[in-house]
Amino acid sequence: MEDPPVAVTLRFMREVNTMAVLARLRENESLIVSEIARATGLSRQAVTRVLDELQSQGLVEYLAPVRPSRGSGRPAQAVRLRAEAGYVVGGLIDPQGIHLAVADLRGTIRASSHVPLGAAPPDQHVLGLLVRETEAVLERANITVADVWSATIGAPGIVDRATGVIRTAPSMPMLTGDVLVETLSKHLACTVHLDNDLKLATRGELWRGSAARVRHLVLVHWGERVGAGIVIDGELHRGASNDAGDLGFLDILASGATTIPGYGRFESWVGVRALAQLVADELEAAGDPERAGVIHQEGEGALDAILTGIGQNETPYLHAVDRLARRFSHGIVALRTILDPELVILSGPLAQVGQPLLDALDRALAAQPLVPPALQISALGRDAVVHGALRHSLDLVEARGYTPIERRGSASSANLLASPVLADEREVPS
Fold this sequence. Notes:
By secondary structure, the protein is α/β, with parallel strands linked by helices. The chain has helices at 10-26, 33-40, 44-56, 123-140, 179-185, 197-208, 265-270, 272-285, 289-298, 303-311, 315-339, 355-365, 383-399; strands at 31-32, 60-62, 78-81, 87-94, 97-104, 109-116, 148-155, 158-160, 165-168, 192-196, 217-222, 226-232, 235-237, 343-347, 374-377.
C-alpha cells in the first residue's frame, strides 16, 4: 500500500490546494471567493493567494463584483476558470474511420471530426489523413498547435502505453509499432499519448455515459472481436499487461467451437460471423435457402442485412439472436462470478441489435443461480473512445498543475489529483 501524501514543503501544500481550487472552478461557470473557501475548507486568505497565482498564470479571471441585492455590504468577488487558456485533443483511429475532438480545459468540446476509411487503405493514406484531420479540427476550433496541451489517441490492438507502441493490431497492421505516435508528434507541440480503444471507451462511459456513478462496471465490445473494459471500485482495471478483460480468448466456455485463425475461441463462437452462420442455419430450416446462401457467403459483411431482418421481427433472425445470446450469456456469467459488476454495458457492432438482444440475454440469464448484473446498450457507441481520450488528456493536464508544457518524470504531480485539501494552510504564513 502506498503511503498517503504529506505536505513536506510549503510549495507542495500550495500545489495541492491549487488543485482543489481549480477542481471547484472547473465544475462551475463562476464562483465567489467565499464559496470556494467553504467548498474546499481553506481560509479566504489561502484561496485568495491561490487565485492571485492562477491569475498571473492566465488560468483564472476575476469578474465584475456582484453587489448584494439588499444592504450596503462589500460586493462579492467572483472568479472563473479561463477554460480557453488551453486545449486537449482526443481521438480514435479504427478500421471504420478517424474520429477527433478538441476540448477546452473544462472538457467542453469545441470542434470534432469524423472521416470514414475506405476498404484496405494504404498505410501512408491512413497516417496522412490523421495528420490532415488533426490540422482541420484545430482550425475549426480556431486554435493553433501551441494551444494544445495534451493529446491522446485510441487504437485497436495491444498497446504499450509507456512507449507509445502498438504491439499487435490485427485489424490495422499498418499501425503496429510507434508510427502513429511518431507521425502525430511531428505535427503537435505536446506529447501524444496512445492507449487501447476499449480502455479509453470505458473511461469515456464513466465520464460522459450512463455509468457516471457506477463503481463496478464492465464495458463489452461485441463485434467480430470481443473484449471488455473493467472498472473496479470506480477505477479502470488494466491488469499486469494492460490487457485485462480480453474476453474473446476464453476457451473453456466454447470448447466445441471452431476457432477463426487469429481470433480467440469465445469470440469465434459469439462474434458477427457466428451470428451470420446462425441466421443462415435458421433460414435454411425455415425453407429459405436462397437468403441463407447470401448470408452465409457474405459472413461478417451480412450484418446490415441481419439487422434489417431483426428490425422486421423475422422469426429466423430472432431465433438466431436467441441462440447467440445463450452462447454469450456464458461470458456474462464468467464476468458476474469473478467481478460481480453492477452494470454491463454492451457496445460494438452487435450492440446495434438493441432491445431484442437485451431481451434474449435476460431470458438466457434467468436460470442462473447468481443475480445477473444490469445490462445496457451503450448510448455513446464509439464516441465513448473519444470522450475517454479527452478525459485522459485532461487528467494529465490536471496532474501536472495545468502547465502548458508537459514535464516528463515529474515526481510530485502524479498524485495531485488524489491528494486531500491541506486546510492547515490557513496556519502557514505566506
